[in-house]
Amino acid sequence: MCVLRATNPMQIRPTRTGGKTFASASAYWKAEPGSADLAGRIVRYVVLAHDPAVPAVAADYWMHSERFYRAVVDPLEAVIGHDLAYRRLVAQPTDTFAERRLEERVVALLDENPELAGKLAREADAADDNVYINYFRGRLYEPEAGPAGLDRLVELASGLRSRPSGTGDEILVVVPLSDRDGAGRIRNLTACLLALRDQTFPADRYRVTVVEFDEKPRWKHVVEPLADHYVHIKGEGPFNKSWTLNVGVRETVGAARTLCLLDADILVDREFLERNHARFTDQRADAHLPHTEMLSLDAPSSDWLIERRCGENTPEAPLAGARGLLLRDVPGACLWTRPEIFHRIGGFDERYKGWGGEDEDMLYRISAAGDVTQYDDVFLHLAHRRPPMRDAEGKPLNAHVEVGSWTGESGFGDTSGVASGDE
Question: How far apart are CA 272 and CA 292, in angstroms?
Fold first, then answer.
């Protein structure tokens, strides 16, 4: 058990349903049990130790995980570091052909050297249980997928029927948006909204709000046909996700009994709303994270899974065609809560600007105020250009904000501007 996970400093109640878990899909990655399976696991750590996308996806997770990567890779490198297949994958860690070739080479090596196989198996077991960034490649993954661009998704949206009338008094979904240069967020949001339109939960009992943070309503023409509410707030400078979400709740909550605060880059399955709304039948439940792990997809598998889920209307995006980095215990991406507790704690802390920190802060405060559960759904995060996570001095962008100090007493979710904070 990972030391950090075991401490559970926020006292979030974990739940392992055995249902839509990432572990249930791991057969897509694994080969037959035995040396081939172990070789695949070992080569996965070669990718993780050398791909620059790994520290970029979450610097703090990387710092915790790197030593476990090296514990697997270093003994292998000492024996096979000269091998052409190894050197090729180290030089090009996204080359899945090189990855497969190295797996074949490692299978032979393990069969020849049982002592090394035993050592690497022990190190891989320890790494599997402790790393916060893992690696996944489905058995049907192809690096050359046809593009699923914004034009394609707008075309799909044009064929949808109008949303039914109704109060939407069960669920309000709020999705924040900021995409000043069309770098991928608006494409991802459109896929997210199409997936939210394709739900088993009755369409007249939920509503979707998109709040755009921008100098102008840049993507209103794309969003309005797919959302029940579009709100534009005049946002200048770094993206303020906290203010954006707070505005969405304050402006459009209506009579909703539950809130879903969802990132624009998440591709949900068809039962997403029904499953998570049902979790509030537990009267203790004030809030929950639907996911334990999140798969941050690469660009080809983002295109492929969007086409399957949105173009072909599959019930869920098939993991067999996915490739990406698997992050454990991600505090962000999605939070479900009751409106009462959201208002009681003053929503998200609007002092957070740019990337990072606001989700952890919210989870800290909401778990102190009520009962929070973590479930083990699979979350799929669509690829986009990574924003800066640190300032020019290498410090986290919001290191100056005291975690848990926000109360919202000076206001929150005001469309005229961010609240000054609680002094």
Answer: 15
pLDDT at 384 over 90: no
Of the candidate ranges 49-53, 95-99, 375-379, the one whose mean pLDDT is the lowest: 375-379
The CATH homologous superfamily to which domain 150-381 belongs is Spore Coat Polysaccharide Biosynthesis Protein SpsA; Chain A (3.90.550.10)
- DSSP result, 76-125: HHHHHTT-HHHHHHHH-TT-HHHHHHHHHHHHHHHHH-HHHHHHHHHHHH
Backbone angles phi, psi at 372, to 5 degrees: -120, 135
CA 261 – CA 301 distance, rounded (Å): 25
Calpha distance 402→408 (Å, rounded): 14
Written as one letter, the residue type at 78 is: A
Model-wide pTM > 0.85: yes
Q: Which residues lie below 8 Å from residue 236, measured CB to CB, with a gap of 6+?
A: 215
Residue of 127, 97, 120 whose CA lies nearest to 38: 120
How many angstroms from the chain centroid is the CA of residue 330?
7
3-state secondary structure 38-76: HHHHHHHHHHHHHCCHHHHHCHHHHHHHHHHHHHHHHHH
Domain spans of the chain? 30-134, 150-381
Q: What single letter denotes the amino acid at residue 153?
A: L
Q: List C-alpha distances in Å: 136 to 26, 149, 198, 266, 377.
A: 8, 24, 27, 17, 16
In the beta sheet, which residues pair with residue 381? 266, 296
How many CB atoms lie under 10 A from the CB of residue 394?
Answer: 8
